[in-house]
Amino acid sequence: MQTLRPREWLNDEIINAYSGLSFNSIDRNYNMKLVSTFFYPALRKAISVPDDIDYAAVQKWDLLRNNYDQDHIFIPLHTNQHHWSLAIISGVRAYVAAYPHGGKSCITITTLDSLASASAESQNQRIFLHFNMVLA
């Protein structure tokens, strides 16, 4: 509870608790998955050596297994000691449905970063990170 005091940084447990409560209040007409804050550090560590990717380290997170029917997957990102952002993977279900039939669909990865947005806004710039990933 120390991290809820004024001028304190939010830690992973507070982010997990708040995002979990928020996520549970969302309309369930969409198929969505919220990933723990512990996933991204495990992923970064697993891919830190390009020629020796540790698949077992992230396999336990079960991000894609049984999640092919998800409309959106939300991943909290702790990008440095004091900053949180959010990655949203969209289109997994549409891609999986279109793939066997030769259809065109892509998985979209969007990041939401309030500090980058505020910095860009103060410099009269627009920033919105958006990636399309087409898997073959």
From TrEMBL:
One GO biological process term: protein desumoylation
InterPro entries associated with the record: Papain-like_cys_pep_sf, Peptidase_C48_C
Keyword terms: Hydrolase, Protease, Thiol protease
Gene3D superfamilies: Adenoviral Proteinase, Chain A
Domain Ubiquitin-like protease family profile: 1-136
GO MF entry, a single one: ubiquitin-like protein peptidase activity
Family recorded in the similarity comment: Belongs to the peptidase C48 family.
Protein name: Ubiquitin-like protease family profile domain-containing protein
Organism: Coleophoma cylindrospora
